[in-house]
Amino acid sequence: MRYTKYYLAIFLSLGLNMAGAQRTIVTDPAANVNVFLGTSGDHGQLSPAASYPFSMLSIGPQTYPATHTGYEYEARRFLGFTHNRFEGVGCRGSGGNILIRPFIGEEEDKELIKINQSGTPGYYKVTFTNRIVAELATGQKNGIHRYHFPAGNNGYFIDLAHTLANKFVAEEHVTTSRTLTGWVEARTTCNAGTYKLYYCLEFSQPVTWTERPGHKLTCVFSTVNDPVEIRVSMSSVSTDYARSSIFHGTFDQLCKEGHNAWNRALSRIEVTGDIAQKKLFYSLLYRTLQSPYQISEKDGTYRGTDGIEKKSTETMFNGWAIWDNYRTQLPMLSVGWPEKYRGMITSLANLYTAGKQDYATQTEPTNTVRTEHAIVVLLDAYRKGYPVRFDLIIDSLAKEIDHLDFSKPDKALESSYDTWAFAEILKILKRDELSEKYMQKARDYKKYWEKDFKNLEARDIDKVQARNLYQGTIWQYRWFVPFDIKGLINLAGGRAAFITQLDQFFNEDLYNHANEPDLQAPLIYNAAGQPWKSQELMHRFAADTVIQYYFNDNSKGIDPFVDKVYKNEPKAYIRTMDDDAGAMSAWYVLAACGFSPACPGWPVYYLNVPLMKTVKLNHIGKDPFEIEVKNYGLHNKYIKKVILNGKVLNRIYITQKEIDAGGKLEIIASAQPETKAPSEGWISSIENVQ
User: Fold this and answer.
1) For helices 329-336 and 583-593, what crossing angle results, to 10°?
2) How far apart, in whole angstroms, are the C-alpha atoms of residue 650 and residue 222?
């Protein structure tokens, strides 16, 4: 069955009766997704790989030259197809295991030159000049390569040592006339640790193997029937589990399954509005649902980060980039995908029993990035109603907190945030005396702030990595006290002085949306009593032209970026801006929905005017939560009034409890700012119980 027949099957499966006079339209958000967004140059570091929601297996094209995700949209030379990649991360990427390159006759080294390509969620297709056509489809832990060859003798070149950044460690494999099974070990992102993947490849016809030096193989066969297929599956536990996950249906059935899975995942947020914005919205939402990866098997077996095989009644996950996405993607998942998030939180708590590290261990079940601020995520989840057994991990939490780094200005502020979260957890456990000890240590952020961040006359405050900062400036990090904005305002000289400094920060384009250090800064005006400025900034950085001087190659750009940040095209985002495992896509999704976390650790969200006319959060087993914009329009970016379930609110924030309860939020929009602050505000404070 060819590509067009596959789409006909999808079309019919969605409930469209073409023969009748009336048609029942079923939502198909996956049809809005552009899988090529952010896949060219250093504009997101994304790939069009065939993927499945939260799956450790993705199958994607590998182009030349090498990039973070192994793919460049403009490239014509293809090296083949690889499995498993961590979308949008730095350090030259992560994954790219088991390279497969089809070839014709004796031309195993001949290049594959692209003619055209296409893709949708869960599916990718490319045609080459040598008449090979490749199609890829994926399920939860399985996938299928489908190749159309010219008749005759053909084959596959397979490189078991291939990775995106030359980080291969070891492998073992076994071949039969129809299978290749084994495991691969490779270094994680930034070479911080090691992960091990078990795999099974099953060929649709007998093949003859030849071993090559350097963990490479070739296999040849005679093409009699067209197409030919390779079925692939992966596991973090064993080759037996990998073999048991092989998909036994047809390629087109797997395409349909993948498409429907993406529709189920994406339809948790249902939006209406401008069609171009809707397509951008779902393309970015698609990016937020790639990781973390489901690692447990159907019977609950999984392998922990300590390498030990275990069992759980929860679905277990791995593949973290928490420093990047704990303020955006993870809070977003907590709202829209609670049944997944419950397993993610259990998995994060289990990191502490397995011997958690900030970066990867040497026995990871999948590739991963980093886990700083996991303690904040756990506190945030607990206060949102997710079960967390703090009593079982409190000693491990204490060990982590007692070894935090306060030696650099940025580290001092970030470590103070984690220390505050630990003090709050101790309070939950009613260990008040010990809680106060750590709360006092968290209050010490003030001395670090006054030493390094108070003086705005210092010559280096706009220099990237000044004073050994990580990927940011003094200006950008000075706002990073999310747990005590009330105290930060006092340190800055009071509310008037604080607002003046914040105005200067944005008026002089010192904010950097290409990275995460100051990601919370546009929201701080809410706490300072001028929410209309936050509303304008959220709209500007989500949907309007911005000016950006900072890039992630550790320099302040000579020529500014002047454009929209979020564009539905291969060269999306600001130059050098990584998506960072959905962190930056989720920022847009939350802004487009009209609410963003005020301070992870507290279940509170500041409001802005959504980019969509309506937003519906479809909870499983609960009433949906709907947001409707009245007086919706391109220039109406300010909130005039907020109405929740028919009652006017004298505040510009909502809580997780209100979202989870379902109901309707109406936001009356205006082209003019409402400069009278609402009577009820929300501001984080280390001194008061919220």
Assistant:
1) 50
2) 73
